[in-house]
Specification:
The complex is a heterotrimer of chains A (358), B (236) and C (291). Chain A has 358 residues and is an all-alpha fold. Chain A is built from 18 helices and 2 strands. The chains are: A mainly alpha (358), B alpha/beta (236), C mainly alpha (291). The interface between A and C is large, with 40 and 42 residues.
Chain lengths: 358, 236, 291
């Protein structure tokens, strides 16, 4: 059956459509998955968790574009998420712009920032590139912490809801935000797919495999990498903005290196080369993160001897260990393991990829 | 006839996804000098590096009857192979003495032979290798390979970029060494090839196109021109 | 003048701390091409174990301090060597995966530390002299700075002597320059990997104990916050260069102190800017050979 699916890619699209449709009606249903979801699917608590999972999926997809497709290992992707979240929060606080124009403004700022930082950072490659991106993200972190009057410092920034439409504010309207998050995921997925199948996307993939050959052929790796970088960063900023609305605030944690590393973990867990992998990884991570805390205080864990109880009550320990095991034994992540049942798409050799791109 | 010391069968190799050696098969006799010839870029250095496992390779390589094509480089070398790489690759921050000490592999190193062949190095034992001239660095590289009791020497373009006088020194040292150890020599300088090599293996586009006695090839001007693109006769 | 002296010596003290962490990072990257994100955890564990030991022997005694330093270094070395043997070695030549594994390890270990010791900082005490100050050129310099500086200098000397006079040191020095050629001389470099990890771990563990005295507390995030600066220092100094790491540690830490004092707390920003500038002008760092 798997080979049938691999032969007919449009089947995947239909499945995707079904998934989206199902996700869209979830808030109207009374489904419960005890142990996994905090309540039934129409409850705001559960919708909050699900919306968060959708947002992380979008964010993971944007990181997949950067790392999985263009091969750019960035340790500072969180910076653009933070620009989105903090940017929107500050604009809504300080100006009289309504939501949509405010989002447009912040998006423009994010694009300009990504263009400038990307142009500088992409002048070096590999580990040096990773370090520069880390440095810029650190700078962002410092700026946020040292200007509490603007950013709320350690306490975080609270969302000012004056200019936000009513249907997006308040606990009861969580499901509207859920639908926004779902819509965003669809948009991000489409954009990433369009890029990957475009000429630019093929060149980016070829660059990832063998940059020298691409250059020898007269194609320009730098431009393509910059385009991928800007698009990925803009998408991250969008996610940050919706995140601000969902959580009613922005927290300094989102500017930390930890946050980008968590993203890295998600994308690798799901499978670096795969869009679906990024989504699956994000869903698994969010659910694990939310539920492990609850699970950790359950009776079953409490009764274990200390040497087992202590590690198991820390969600990040389980995530970290899981991650290590995946890297060691499941190099393709979850998507890679699944894909091994059918013919591998990413075995297209570099030469063919370059020819595709010409 | 004794068995060849090195048997290469259907060797292929890639670097960063690029096929650099297509299908190479040849033998290296257990004594004498075998020259590996060919134009620039045909895969001579890659063949040597493939034999040593320094690049990704497939095919069969037998050294003194043992399969070595699946082994890691350091194990292959420990069987008794001395390697003189193209571009010397001395450790520039280490002294001459340290370069040699690093290369010593247990047992009784040929310290006396090396000291005799390269008196200049003895004088410069404490000097940083990076500050040596090209010719002196080549001596260090050769000494590293000669200091152990090796059963085969793989020597890659030892005279590259050196002045004629130094070329002569290198050739002399190699001739001394070849007296007791078989040598597989990659060399563009046909004068050196003529004076040292017994047999030749010629490559083109990653494959072997000619094997035979060295003198036979070099005496045949037309063949030499066709295979190597240069005239065999060099004004000395 | 006295302010300048104080800033300078504090900078040197902090620089000593950065160097202790960066020395390991630099050698590990130089020889193995691995960016070790778990290095911070070696530091934190060393700090915690050192504290546990000092706690039992009496935190205000010199014996307690000495024991904690030894234990911190030993724990760091052992855990680092274990990391290399169990995790890194399986991923030989796969650099991205190696980095990822260290990321996972850092996440897991920090969580583990939080589970064992809690998330709040634990206040650390030492011999009375450390908390006192000595007058130097008009400035009242806290004595813990001197301990840090002396420790870092001793570690630097020890590592240099090791590299100069032992066979493993020779292999490591050559391997940092040209790893392939070392294997082509018949040497199994992988053993040197474990040695390098152990050295880095020992320095980090030692640094952890010293950091706990410098900052006055130990917490699960102690290593992580220092690690970022150690990375920056390593890159500025040049990946793989021990002397580069030493020089960069001093420059970065002193700059940080002066910027914090004279430019209103912008020390961190200035350091980050310095990194960006160095990377764009001289991508291999001050004394580095690897790009």
């Amino acid at each position: 059956m798997k080979t049938v699916l691999n032969d007919k890619p449009w089947l995947w699209w239909i499945l995707g459509g079904v998934f989206v449709a199902f996700a869209a009606v979830l808030p109207l249903l009374n489904l419960s998955i005890p142990g996994v979801l905090p309540g039934a699917t129409y409850t705001p608590g559960t919708l909050q968790v699900l919306a968060l999972a959708l947002l992380f999926s979008s964010l993971a997809l944007s990181y997949h574009l950067l790392f999985g497709t263009a091969g750019l290992l960035s340790f500072g992707h969180a910076l653009y998420f933070a620009i989105g979240a903090y940017g929107l929060g500050i604009v809504l606080d300080r100006t009289d712009l309504t939501l949509v124009p405010a989002m447009g403004l912040v998006l423009a700022i994010a694009i300009v920032a990504a263009y400038l930082i990307g142009s500088l950072s992409l002048r070096v490659a590999g580990i040096s590139f990773a370090m520069v991106t880390l440095a810029f993200a650190q700078a962002g972190n410092v700026l946020v912490r040292r200007n509490p009057s603007i950013t709320g410092g350690e306490e975080g920034l609270r969302l000012q809801t004056e200019h936000v439409p009513d249907f997006l504010v308040g606990v009861l309207n969580t499901r509207n935000l859920y639908w926004v998050a779902l819509a965003l995921l669809v948009v991000v997925f489409v954009i990433v797919t369009v890029f990957e199948s475009s000429r630019a996307g093929h060149v980016a993939a070829a660059v990832r495999e063998n940059e020298l050959r691409v250059r020898v052929l007269g194609l320009r790796p730098f431009v393509v990498k910059l385009v991928a970088f800007v698009i990925a960063s803009a998408l991250a900023a969008l996610v940050g903005m919706v995140h601000l609305l969902l959580q009613s605030g922005a927290a300094p944690r989102s500017t930390s290196a930890d946050f980008t590393l968590t993203l890295l973990v998600i994308v690798v867990l799901g499978g670096v080369g795969s869009r679906w992998g990024a989504i699956v990884g994000a869903l698994v991570y969010t659910l694990l993160d939310q539920r492990l805390t609850a699970l950790a205080s359950s009776e079953w864990i409490e009764s274990l001897p200390a040497v087992l109880r202590i590690p198991l009550s820390e969600p990040l320990f389980i995530l970290g260990t899981l991650f290590i095991l995946v890297v060691l034994f499941l190099p393709g992540g979850i998507a890679g393991a699944v894909r091994r049942i059918g013919p591998s798409r990413s075995s297209v050799p570099a030469r063919d990829r370059i020819e595709e791109a010409e | 006839m004794t068995d060849p010391i090195l048997r290469v069968r259907s060797l292929s190799a890639r670097i960063a996804g690029q096929q650099v050696v297509e299908d190479v098969s040849f033998d290296v006799p257990a004594s004498g000098v075998t020259a590996l010839l060919g134009r620039n870029g045909v895969g001579k250095t890659s063949t040597i590096r493939g034999i040593l496992g320094l690049i990704e390779r497939h095919g069969t390589v037998e050294f003194a009857g043992e399969r070595i094509d699946q082994r890691p480089t350091h194990r292959i070398v420990q069987l008794g192979i001395g390697y003189v790489p193209e571009d010397r690759e001395v450790f520039s921050k280490l002294t001459v003495a340290e370069n040699l000490r690093l290369a010593e592999r247990g047992g009784a190193p040929n310290r006396e032979l090396v000291d005799e062949l390269f008196p200049d190095l003895v004088a410069r034992a404490g000097q940083q290798a990076g500050t040596l001239s090209g010719g002196q660095q080549q001596m260090v590289s050769l000494a590293r390979a000669l200091i152990n009791d090796n059963r085969l020497l793989l020597v890659d373009e030892p005279t590259k970029g050196l002045a004629p006088l130094i070329v002569q020194d290198v050739a002399n040292a190699l001739e001394r060494a070849a007296g007791s150890v078989p040598v597989l020599l990659v060399e563009q300088n046909l004068h050196v090839v003529r004076s040292l090599a017994d047999t030749v293996v010629v490559l083109e586009s990653g494959r072997v196109v000619h094997t035979g006695a060295a003198a036979e090839l070099l005496d045949d001007e037309e063949l030499t021109q066709r295979l190597l693109g240069v005239a065999a006769e060099v004004e000395s | 003048m006295s302010t300048v002296v104080l800033l300078l010596i504090t900078g040197l003290g902090l620089g000593a701390l950065y160097f202790l962490v960066a020395s390991g990072l630099s050698l590990i990257y130089g020889l193995m091409g691995v960016l070790n994100f778990a290095h911070g955890s070696f530091l934190t564990l060393g700090a915690f174990m050192g504290w546990e030991v000092a706690r039992r022997l009496g935190q205000d005694s010199w014996w307690g301090l000495a024991a904690s330093l030894v234990v911190g270094a030993a724990v760091g070395a052992i855990v680092a060597a274990a990391t290399e043997l169990l995790l890194i070695r399986r991923l030989y030549e796969r650099h991205i995966e190696q980095v990822l594994v260290t990321v996972g390890l850092s996440l897991a270990t920090v969580a583990l530390f939080e589970g064992i010791w809690g998330t709040d900082p634990i206040y650390v005490d030492g011999p009375a002299w450390l908390g006192q100050t000595t007058e130097l050129l008009g400035a009242k310099v806290p004595n813990d700075r001197f301990m840090l500086i002396i420790a870092a200098v001793l570690v630097l000397l020890a590592i240099v002597l090791f590299l100069r006079h032992t066979r493993y040191g020779l292999i490591i020095r050559a391997g940092v320059e040209n790893r392939a050629m070392v294997t082509a001389l018949g040497i199994d470099v992988r053993r040197a990997f474990t040695v390098v990890f152990a050295i880095g771990g020992a320095a980090a563990g030692l640094g952890g104990v010293l950091a706990s005295h410098y900052f006055g507390y130990v917490s699960p995030h102690l290593g992580g916050s220092l690690l970022i600066f150690a990375f920056i220092v390593t890159v500025i100094g040049g990946l793989g260069s021990l002397s580069g790491a030493a020089i960069a540690s001093v420059i970065v830490a002193v700059l940080q102190q002066f910027a914090n004092f004279y430019l209103g707390g912008t020390g961190d920003l200035v350091v980050v800017l310095l990194l960006a500038v160095v990377l764009l002008v001289r991508p291999t760092g001050l004394l580095g050979a690897k790009a």
